[in-house]
């Protein structure tokens, strides 16, 4: 069956450390993988997109890796801050047609001062 | 940056009534808009994809006669939950693609919290 898995348990880290979130998928062949941030009661906010032929993408303190062999993406936040506390969603972009996104359930990140 | 709005942000209604939710792209034209539903602590589930001027494409298991979608213009899509029941209570989120941008980014609205009593 097709699955997207993100750590269901919250990730608690100390301010200044690097947060690493994992997204694994099975029986999908996405063209792209996207990461979003979602705050409680709000819609998702786009962070990064990485294509299947890209190994790594960076944006300021964010870094995403994409391993299509392992079917895994890692999302890193360096020098984390309490303001980074939120739920982070990965989404598979199947491309073709209307670019349907298939979301994971998200991992809640809590950065403590 | 691209902004998508939703109205209302929250709504409470009685069982059996219909509720309309609007999704607008404020500073760009959207060829395609998407409607999602999210239950607490769960992922966003795509309900349907709508293109301006054509019928929406519904995902498996989503009743098209219950969730009516109208994409009347390049900046407005509406979702009407007909004969709402308590199990329809959820967080409804729309997203839109900018027709002028070649990237595949979807811009999400802030969501609408629907509570059916």
Report on the structure:
The complex is a heterodimer of chains A (113) and B (117). With 113 residues, chain A is an all-beta fold. Chain A is built from no helices and 11 strands. In chain A, the strands form 2 sheets. In chain A, strands 2, 4, 5, 9, 10 and 11 form a 6-stranded mixed β-sheet that branches. Chain A is globular, with a radius of gyration of 14 Å. Chain A starts with a strand and ends with a strand. In chain A, 33% of the residues are buried. The mean pLDDT of chain A is 91. By secondary structure, chain B is mainly β. Chain B has strands at residues 4-7, 10-13, 19-25, 30-38, 45-51, 57-58, 67-73, 76-81, 90-98, 106-108, 112-116. In chain B, strands 2, 4, 5, 6, 9, 10 and 11 form a 7-stranded mixed β-sheet that branches. The mean pLDDT of chain B is 91. At the A-B interface, strand 4, strand 5 and strand 10 of A face strand 4, strand 5, strand 9 and strand 10 of B.
Summarize the topology:
The complex is a heterodimer of chains A (113) and B (117).
Chain A lengths: L2 E4 L4 E4 L4 E8 L5 E7 L6 E7 L4 E4 L2 E6 L4 E6 L8 E8 L7 E3 L3 E6 L1
Parallel strand pairs in A: 2-11
Antiparallel strand pairs in A: 1-3, 3-8, 4-5, 4-9, 6-7, 7-8, 9-10, 9-11
Chain B lengths: L3 E4 L2 E4 L5 E7 L4 E9 L6 E7 L5 E2 L8 E7 L2 E6 L8 E9 L7 E3 L3 E5 L1
Summarize the structure.
The complex is a heterodimer of chains A (113) and B (117). Chain A is mainly beta and 113 residues long. Chain A is built from no helices and eleven strands.
Core attributes:
heterodimer; A: 113 residues; mainly beta; six-stranded mixed sheet; five-stranded antiparallel sheet; 11 strands; 56% strand; B: 117 residues; seven-stranded mixed sheet; four-stranded antiparallel sheet
